[in-house]
Specification:
Two copies of one chain form a homodimer. With 360 residues, chain A is α/β, with parallel strands linked by helices. Chain A has helices at residues 15-26, 40-49, 62-66, 83-92, 107-120, 134-143, 165-170, 182-198, 305-323, 330-350, and strands at residues 6-11, 30-36, 57-59, 73-76, 96-99, 124-126, 152-162, 206-209, 214-215, 221-229, 235-241, 243-254, 257-261, 272-279, 295-300, 356-357. Chain A has ten helices and 16 strands. In chain A, a hairpin with a 2-residue loop joins strand 12 (243-254) and strand 13 (257-261).
């Protein structure tokens, strides 16, 4: 097979790029080839601060990196409002695309991105790291087990963290021209993805935003929530907030089983992660205790979840580059579904909390 | 002080009365004096099946038990539709009242009950056992700690269990003439109480039922949910269902802390119970793990929670009977708040999911 290492470029020196650059270094089938920023100085400082080896190129513009023919794929951690421009350009330059979430400001923009990815034959994957943790596969096993879990009936997700005053004033995620979806795009994204995950990626029929969302002066969402309804009677609730203590919950209640996880986007510890699974839970005869009780499942991993992500992305890119493979459609498909639900929540907020039909 | 043992009578031989009669036997300040059923034969069988000692009287009618002058207090596990009649009569006969939940079919009925309790100087307490578990006091300590928890911002509760076909056909909780509130009254009650508990018993301003409640042919609720809104921006969601795997969750997210408990109405085990508490939770610098992580708090108890309940009820009754005390108003007050929220959920379901203002 020869060379199967995928050469990745990073455009944008966001904080999260520190973690992903480490993941690229740790992934056995990827290597960091270049980093590009709006200024050469910024790119150099980022490379130095993160201890990049000397062979990593630094570029003073995103275009220059995209024009480097050695770059197979780019990781794009730019503010959401810039995604459509740079993701489209990257695809046009035949660069495979690992794009930060939320993937776009709305589905129309995202469709532009995936159209370009499709017509240029490049792999698209969003940067939802927890999807790639081996625990997630174990949870999916449980959720798809008709005997242990049955059919999902109720799903709940919550992602909150307590942003400090500087974040609430200056972070790109509270700026209407950079990340207009605010908390909904940043952490509501994970709630929506988790709900879709637990619903086997079946889109809800209707979405209704909760009332009393918290917006900043510029109209960016700092806290909100929504209820999702499926035609088969399934219901999901989520809440996301920049204004409460760090909380990352997913609960899925099925006809026969229940799943609980309290750190679904980022495990409490890097090398092991667990979840609780109850099946046909019940009380004893006199209703004094549970019998059986839920059990705890722990999954160990040598690699952090973001390394699993980069490895899977690079594997898919390698299959295209070296084995004439086709891009895997699963990833853009679930990105689009996530974005469709985000759009509906935003529309419901802007429409006096009316029910919004999801149209695929 | 002399005799301080409270003599309790039970009217109605419901399943749950088995557990409460055991609790009365175990409570150091209470004794089971009598049991009454609609037939003497049924009362005798219940006494025999539960191994009541020979001094426990059996009555073939509820009236006869209420007319026994030795009975200080009655425990009433009758179907909800019968509460107002028998609770009022008990209060008029000066019997202190331990009443099963939901306390009434609606707040108007409940007001009739507490009016009679007040004018007759008897103690009222509903039978929400978990309120009396020592773990609940520990959780209340955490939730009221401004440093560790801050102010509540989001609360989530879920109570589901998987009812078998016989229950769904024959149980009093699915009969419109007996327990018209169905799952909302039976287990939604606990969700609402838990939410109020986490909100320091502050009533929400508005309640909106979730769409797609499941009703049986007679219109009794088998599954439903609601969102509660407070004027200060707090939001709560709950879901209750007879149609999913046993799940009993309370999550409270505050500005500084988060509480999780997965068995809040009935601990997994009888002698120990735990909850998880996170405070100022955060990630490490590179966002690879939580630092600090939430901690687990375990509370041991020699007595099951229902014994704590009977002991507290009997203590309050004893204070009235032997020490010229006044009835403790906390208990009827929080019962009434719970009922007000249940009423609003039902009204919202019956009003096409319109927001319902809570009027105290």
């Amino acid at each position: 097979m020869g060379e199967t290492i995928i050469r990745i470029g990073i455009i944008g020196c966001a904080d999260i790029a520190r973690k992903v650059s480490r993941a690229i270094a740790l992934a056995p089938n990827a290597t960091l080839h270049a980093v590009g920023s709006r200024s050469l100085d910024k790119a150099r400082k980022f490379a130095a601060a993160n201890g990049f080896p000397p062979h990593v190129k630094v570029y003073g513009s995103y275009e220059a990196l995209l024009d480097d023919p050695v770059v197979d794929a780019v990781y794009v951690p730019l503010p959401t409002s810039l995604h459509v421009h740079w993701a489209v350009l990257a695809a046009q330059k035949k660069k495979h695309l690992l794009l930060e979430k939320p993937v776009a400001l709305n589905t129309a923009e995202f469709d532009h991105i995936i159209d370009e990815c499709e017509s240029n034959g490049v792999q698209f994957m969003d940067c939802t790291m927890w999807m790639h943790h081996p625990r997630t596969a174990k949870m999916a096993e449980f959720l798809s087990d008709e005997q242990r879990f049955g059919l999902p009936r109720y799903i709940h997700a919550c992602f909150a963290f307590s942003a400090d005053p500087d974040f609430l004033k200056n972070d790109i995620r509270v700026k209407p021209d950079l990340d207009a979806l605010g908390a909904l795009g940043d952490i509501g994204w994970y709630c929506v993805r988790a709900i879709l995950f637990a619903a086997n990626y079946e889109l809800p029929k209707t979405v209704i935003a909760l009332r009393q969302p918290v917006l900043n002066e510029a109209g960016v969402i700092l806290a909100c929530g929504a209820t999702l309804y499926w035609e088969d009677g399934k219901v999901a609730n989520f809440h996301c907030s920049f204004l409460s203590n760090l909380t990352i919950d997913l609960t899925a209640v099925g006809t026969k089983g229940t799943l609980h996880v309290h750190d679904f986007t980022l495990p409490f510890q890097e090398r092991e992660a667990s979840f609780s699974a109850g099946s046909e839970s019940s009380f004893d005869d006199l209703v004094t205790k549970w019998d059986p009780q839920p059990s705890r499942h722990t999954v160990n991993t040598d690699l952090p979840q973001e390394v699993h992500m980069v490895r899977e992305f690079s594997r898919l890119v390698g299959a295209i580059k070296f084995n004439n493979g086709k891009p895997e459609k699963k990833w853009p498909t679930i990105s689009r579904k996530s974005q469709l639900v985000l759009d509906a929540v935003r529309t419901s907020i802007d429409s006096n909390f009316e029910p919004i039909l999801i149209q695929e």
